[in-house]
Write a structure and sequence with these properties.
Number of strands of chain A: 15
Low-confidence stretches of chain A: none
Structural class of chain A: alpha/beta
Number of helices of chain A: 12
Radius of gyration of chain A: 22 Å
Oligomer: homodimer
CATH architecture of the largest domain in chain A: 3-Layer(aba) Sandwich
Largest interface: A-B, 91 and 91 residues
Order of helices and strands of chain A: EEEHHHEHEHEHEHEHEEHHEEHEEEH
Chain lengths: 397, 397
């Protein structure tokens, strides 16, 4: 089979730039601007309030959820979209605790993305009653799943190192101990093959502005295992999760589907952008993406290790243990990343010393990888990172 | 002083349409499409991840918050934006309960918008421990504020009838009883003058897609009284409410400002649309808006009562007790509204029998009001609402 990758002609990619930060914000796919413009001019401008029906705005969250579902192995009707990933984490966690009322422990790992842990902390502080969060090292999670644990909440791919948890094995371990399993797919959706239906986890959450290229602040998603959705407490019980939102009933009555995890009025402009961005995935399989991602990542590691001895690999060396990013540690990592960016190679930096590079086969090829390493070698060999201009920290890195 | 109203030339308004539903979804202001297009092409497309700094995306939520603050009498730095109104209701309620740990009652009223009550119900169900919600009739709220009440949560302007609560008096009553006051300004912001600083309430929340014309799914806002913001528990403790979001600290440490009520990654496309939409308000005072709104509403009531005897006023007759909408009850209200819409006058319907009309002086004048009543009289006198085409309920009305 001929590869359908890369599809560079489906993206707006600035000339002369190598973009290795699609794991933070994906680039603008072709057609997105036109779609959002049409939503504004024709639908909002021309139809006004009628567009909720006539332009099918009301159906958009579910339509987009189903399109995401296809990329994470989730059946139609099992993924709801909206809000931010932080909110979706809170919903999953709160619902999980309600499913295990006699248990008091949320188990995560010390490498989880901070907002997941912060949201858990906010929930635990609100509940009191002895609830606690445990965060062992990632490799010690399996051993820490005891029968005190109500919910295991893990991010499959570590945001810093790219280390990947084994979803199947950890989900089984959680279930063996009677715990509910929640997967955060922020760095998985569109990056690696995910089999939600197969792994049996109760919940998954994720964002869409990284590998799914939905744009800045694109809506999040939440998956609920279909057989148990009617047992899930929609703790954030907003009107759009109601069985009949426009009946304006005085009491909350949850939708008998994953839509019960919708909350408020959906962000139509962002959803339309995401919907159009998902067109890029038509005809691509996650297996094809994964194979290309490994090829690019392995090439990158080999080239960097050959030409940039100043850097130390901070990701697992074995491809099967890595997501779609590669990280290197470097003492002057912040300044070196600024210098790289100034020279046309965009990755990002994560404290304390991690230079992070995302590999996105939709719009990257081996020529890009080699060219990026050319620039890296120059930045490091000529110590360009010592320029004072690259030392000042901006708020977003 | 010459009136600056209406400013019809600042909006895209379809030819031949009279839009009396700006209280549900405001029309598209001029310049919004261009702004969002620039954000997509130049910033997202051209700057990619760098735009968080270079295009000041990170500062946008606070900038927009300050612009909203000006319209609700709130000082700079006291309004945070993001998420949906439902989420902001939850944050305010949860924080209020934490401020009054010895009390167990949330007091609202039976006319409050359902999602406010649903969110309260979700919170109370999660907390257990004897928490309860009381919903007396709107006119009986003042008498129901006892020393059991932790939080009084009211929508200033009733979504169905337009009846308006007295913010100053009820806030004083809440404080006299030791309760925390939360105002929902969904039908107030941009509709009536609001004096958050003057009324002394601890919290206000609101949405921006109605009178503020921010577009479908535009972000919500939350106000916290500045002197107490450091005592507010950010129960939805997301990373963008952290004092240093990009330090990726393992523990949550809230921002020492209203930004602690931010949660996840801000929806930049929607925020940019809202920011551009707020330009329409430059040089307009809420007093001027209010005066024009009363003129239009009084004319509408007089004309309808003179020419449409089939309808019964369902809003307070006294202008000072009404927001910027007028409702009429009619047995065949649903079908009559469909017929009206088909004949170019857009209002909306709220169960069981309310025909609702919003008055938005930015783009409506007396000629529009008279023309709308011409159509209403014809629909009613000719019983056009009996056409079977107008009987089928769509999901959004």
């Amino acid at each position: 089979m001929t590869s359908t990758l890369p599809r560079k002609d489906r993206f707006h990619l600035p000339e002369g730039l190598i973009y290795l930060d699609g794991n933070s914000l994906g680039p603008l796919p072709l057609g997105v601007t036109e779609r959002v413009e049409a939503v504004m001019r024709r639908e909002w401008g021309g139809e006004l309030i009628r567009a909720w029906n006539s332009a099918e705005w009301m159906a958009l969250p579910q339509k987009v959820g189903d399109r995401i579902g296809r990329l994470i192995g989730a059946p139609a009707g099992s993924v709801a979209t909206g809000d931010t990933l932080s909110i979706k984490v809170y919903q999953a966690l709160a619902a999980a605790l309600r499913l295990r009322p006699d248990r008091r422990v949320i188990l995560s790992d010390s490498g989880n993305f901070p907002t997941d842990l912060y949201m858990a902390q906010g929930l635990v502080d609100l509940l009191g009653q002895g609830y606690e969060i445990r965060t062992p090292a990632p490799e010690e999670v399996a051993g820490a799943i005891t029968d005190e644990v109500a919910a295991v909440m893990l991010t499959q791919v570590d945001y810093r190192s790219g280390r990947m948890h084994d979803m199947g094995a950890l989900t089984r371990a959680a279930h063996d101990a009677g715990a509910v399993m929640i997967w955060d797919l922020a760095h998985s959706a569109g990056a690696v093959p995910v089999d939600m239906a197969g792994c049996g986890a109760e919940f998954a959450v994720g964002c869409t502005y990284k590998y799914l290229n939905g744009g800045p602040g694109a809506p999040a998603f939440i998956y609920v295992r279909p057989d148990m959705v009617e047992d899930v407490a929609p703790v954030l019980a907003g009107w759009l999760g109601h069985a009949a939102p426009f009946a304006f009933e005085p009491d909350y009555r949850p939708a008998m589907s994953v839509e019960r995890l919708r909350v408020g009025t959906p962000p139509i402009l962002q959803l339309a952008a995401l919907d159009a961005a998902l067109d890029v995935w038509d005809g691509v399989t996650m297996e094809e993406i994964r194979a290309a991602s490994i090829t690019l990542s392995e090439l990158f590691i080999a080239e960097v290790e050959a030409r940039c001895p100043q850097l130390t690999l901070a990701s697992p060396r074995a491809a099967e243990q890595r997501g779609s990013q590669v990280s290197f540690a470097f003492e002057h990592g912040y300044a070196a990343m600024q210098a790289l960016i100034a020279h046309g190679v965009i990755g990002d930096f994560r404290a304390p010393d991690i230079m992070r590079f995302g590999f996105t086969p939709l719009y990257l090829d081996e020529t890009d990888v080699r060219a990026a390493v050319d620039v890296m070698a120059k930045v490091l060999d000529d110590e360009l990172y010592r320029d004072p201009a690259y030392q000042t920290r901006s708020r977003v890195t």
